[in-house]
Amino acid sequence: MYDIIGDIHGHATQLEQLLLKLGYQFIDDCYQHPDGRQVIFVGDLIDRGSQIRETLHIVKTMCERGFAQCIMGNHEYNAICFHTPHIEKGGFFRDHSWKEIKQHLQTLEQFHKKEDEWEMYLEWFKSLPLFLELPSFNVVHAYWNEANIEWIKQHYTTMDSTFLSRCCNKENEAFRVIEETLKGIETALPNGITNPDKEGNHRGDCRVKWWMPFADRKTMNEVLIPCPEALKQSPLPIGTNYATYDGSKTVFFGHYSLKYAPVIENQLAICTDYNITHGGHLVACRTDVKNDELEIELIY
Length: 300
Known about the structure:
The protein is of the alpha/beta class. The protein has helices at about 10-20, 50-65, 75-85, 100-110, 115-125, 145-155, 160-165, 175-185, and strands at about 1-5, 25, 30, 40, 70, 130-135, 135-140, 185-190, 195, 200-205, 205-210, 225, 250-255, 270, 275, 280, 285-290, 295-300. Helix 6 packs across helix 8 (about 175-185).
C-alpha cells in the first residue's frame, strides 16, 4: 500500500495538507499512516519554493523512520554537481554561472549560514536511489527505459566524484543514461522555433511525452511538452519514432510540471508532477493491489 507523491519543490505546507488528506498523522515529529501505508517521493524536493528546509525535514524524517522512500530527482542531482569540486578540471561539476545560480537560488538563500545542515542533506541526496522496482510497479524521476535501468544496475553504486566525472563527460555513456533517467528525452525543434523554459531561456529542443500511448498521438501537441504554438496542430512527421513506453509494468514518475488538470493519460505510465510552484497541484497516486490488480487513485 503506497502513496506516490510528485515534485514538491519546497512547498512544505501543501505537502502537509496532502499527507493529512491521505490519512497520515503527525506523531513524534513524523508523518505516519495508521494502516501502515508508505509514501514514495519521486524527487525534486528542493529549489523554487519558500519552505525547502521544512520539506527536507519532513521527507528525510519519514524515510529514516520507515514511513517513506525517496528517489533522486534532477534537482537533487544538480545540487550534488553544483556543490562537488571537480578535482581534475577545477571548479565544480555544475557551472556557477548566473543561469545555474538562479535555478538553485531559493535553496542557497534558505540554507545561508546553515552550512552544516545543508551538508547533511547533500550527503543524504547522494544516497538516494535513481529508481525503485517494487512487485506491482516501478518509480523513476523522469524516464523509464529498460536499457538505461540495466546500465545503472551494472555500473552505478554511489554519486561520488569518480561517477560524476563520467556523468559530466558528454562522450561517456553515463552522461546519456543519467540525463535521460533524471531529465527525460528531448528532441530538436525545427529551425527557427524555440521554447522558453521555466527560467525564460529560449531552447531549440523540447521534451518528449514518452508516456503517451501511440493511439493518442495525432499531432505534435500530443508528443512535445510544452509544444510550441506553431507546432501544436502539425501532424507527426512520417517515419519519426518518438520515445515511448512499451513495458507491461506500471511506472510512476514526476519531473514534467504538467499544466493541465491531473489525469491518468496512460495506465502503465503515470505522471505525478502538476506544477505546484506556479499554481498547480501537489498530486499523490494512491495505490492498492486487489485481486492481483493494481488500483490507482489520483488525490490532490
